[in-house]
Amino acid sequence: MNIDNLQMPAAGSSRRHWLRSAAVAGGLLLPGVRAMADDPVFSVVETADGRVRGLKSGGIHVFKGLRYGADTGGANRFMPPQPVARWAGVRDATAYGNYAPQMPADRRRAYADLIAYDLQPGGMGEDCLVLNLWTPSPERSARRPVLVHLHGGGFYAGSGNSPQFDGEMLARFGNAVFVTLNHRLGSFGYLNLAGHGGERYAHAGTAGMLDVVAGLKWVRENIEAFGGDPSRVLVFGQSGGGLKAGALMAMPAARGLFHRAGVMSGSGLRLMPKETSHDIAGRYLAALQVGKGALDRLHQLPMEQLLAVQVQFEQADRAQGEAPRAFSPVVDGVNLPRHPFDPDGPAVSAAVPMIIGTTFEDRAYRQGNFGLDQAGLLKFAEAKLASRPGVDAKAEAPKLVAMYRDEDPKATPYQLQARIDTDTTFRLGAQLQAERKAAQQAAPVWTYLWKTPSPAFGGRYGAPHGVDIGPSLHDIRLGLNGPSDEQMGLADQLASAWVSFAASGDPNNARTPAWAPYTREKRTTLVFDGPASATRAVDDPRRAFRTYWLPV
Q1: In the predicted model, what is the mean pLDDT of residues 501-513?
Q2: pTM flag (> 0.85)
Q3: Sign of dihedral through CA atoms 294, 186, 261, 94?
């Protein structure tokens, strides 16, 4: 509808209806004009900063691009997040906002599209402190549990705009409020300039995580207006989202902003040391040809120029076969006083219960050698064992491969390679994180292992990194899962566990088997292995592999 074509109402017509139609056609709602309670299309909610207008979809009220912080460009670069200026009238919240500047996606591997981290709507830009929200109804009296989902992509890529993280299905299924948020990434969020520019840049190395804290403060202040309960907030995520949830556990500024935490294949025990990040920042400034006394130039250079240098560092990491890690939260002694889970669990979050999960072949995303043979598998095992002190890698490799082969005679060498790689990375970190959380004896921790393989490409990946994302959000449309009765049954179970955990601090519910917390005595783990009927709680599953790599 074109606003220029609207005619003034004839005598006897509703002037209010005409004003509302004109406002909608023009992309805004005028001051004093609001969507009616029974409006089939729009919802208007009053936030602390002003009114916002969302859309209704299948009975769910959807608000996209809600601003929780000011533009991070120009003078605000590398600074802590700044508040939003209050507005008059009604601000549109029907389209995704910006996602953070980041390295473009590389879709040359099929897995990249299956995981869909880097396929996201919305434009790239520094005005990226926005969040998206799904709720069954914006009624203050509803006080539903709140699930804040942090996106994957490490600390360098992704956004809450990804179709993979759409919250409509989970909000409807769990009668809960679901939130995703965008925040600064890469050098824009984690360039440690404190040692180069003084007090002005004291928080630059943790700016991205301070954004997340600001988003959680917005939730605390506003979520009740959207039907959520600010005293029942779960923060969780997969991969980089799990890393961020773990980092929040060690941040004093985040204390009290969330009440449960979940880590899915992202158990980061340590973050960037201050000394290492200082050196990286020095090389970054040199690449930009910005001298130590000329840091003001950083606020004037085009975003694209900063991003181009960032990508140079990230590509160097990729050349070594790893995800970019040059820019990540800095243990600065203030915002992050310590590493999240090293050498033990952080006292600041000791009372926060956790769920920690991994998948059987998390590291299947890393390799593409699907035709790997036995000789290649042995060579891979030797390389893994080479760094172990006192181990004859050549003699031990056949024994190690035999142990993995005995566990699953039908697995391909590629899948066994991924399991060895996973057991020494993702699962090792998850086991240590669970051990250290349980040792605090202040709040329970539950663990799960997802073994059900992805059907993608005939199951060649096994159960790779991210295969549990869709089921956790009760949304199995995308590539790693796909619509089927088996996948939906598993989604019923995992999504129910997350919703129950958000609501009560305990994931047990009518859809899953009894699931005891993890303790060092039993190490009980919920195992998803095939159809939902096969899901079961197992004490210390795969104990031989755990003790081989982690003798505790």
Answers
A1: 98
A2: yes
A3: positive
